[in-house]
Amino acid sequence: MSSDVRPCPICKLENARLVKIAGSEPYEIKCKRCGSFMMEGILLRIIEKGPLSEEDGHLLPYLSSHTRQATENGITSEFGRDNWRDLARAHTTTSVSQKVTKLLELVASRSAYPGARVLVDAGLDYPLLDATSDDEVNYLPESTDKGVKIAFRPITTGFRMMPPFHPLGESLNSGKIAEGSMNAEQN
Ligand SMILES: [Zn+2]
User: Fold this and answer.
1) How does DSSP classify residue 142?
2) DSSP for 77-106?
């Protein structure tokens, strides 16, 4: 078994751990952003060597969404040249309102109780929302849908689920930190 620490082949985040198990083809890769997954060695070499076609490059962030969401569900995704695009494409059609819902669900899943302050790291957690960068997460709370309102609160230290009657402040500077509010009408 050989192990190597280098940038993640999918998202390029530093310090991903790649493990090659002797006699087995796929690499086991662990990345703080993409989670844990098994990638076919040939695909790993293709992606690392590059350059990828424009379309494939566009799909890569959605592969992060696939691997990270699988990891959160206790599944280690295994893929190669033949199926990675289909796995990624499944995350390309998520609407803005669905992403807002995913953000609220993420905050809720990390909250021990309504109003608890929880950390959502936009830079590491954006694949959980089918977003392609932290920028998109930072703007999501401003993409309000009926029944869903989130105001950025750069001075606080995390996201909070707020009661629907909580007075929302004006939209402040975008940043990693936000407070969220879920209206009772939101399912
Ligand atoms: Zn990664």
Assistant:
1) G
2) EEE-TTTHHHHHHTTS---HHHHHHHHHHH
Which long-range CB contacts under 8 A does 122-125 form with residues at least 24 apart? 122/176, 123/33, 123/176, 124/32, 124/33
What is the average per-residue pLDDT within 18-41?
Answer: 90
* CA 60 to ligand 1 center in whole angstroms: 10
CA of 107 to the centre of ligand 1 (A): 21
Contact 117, 162 (CB under 8 A): no
Count CB atoms within 10 A of the CB of residue 9: 23
- The Cα 67–Cα 77 span in angstroms is 6
17 alpha carbon to ligand 1 midpoint, in Å?
Answer: 10
Distance of CA 147 to the CA centre of its chain: 23
Query: Which sign does the torsion angle of CA 176, 101, 109, 75 carry?
Result: negative
Question: 17: pLDDT confidence band, cut at 50, 70 and 90?
Answer: very high
- Cα angle for residues 163, 167, 169 (degrees, 5° grid): 125
pLDDT for residue 101:
84
The yes-or-no verdict on residue 149 having pLDDT over 60 is no
Say whether 152 sits in a helix, a strand or coil. strand
Nearest to 129 by CA among 152, 101, 148: 101
**Which pTM value belongs to this model?**
0.77
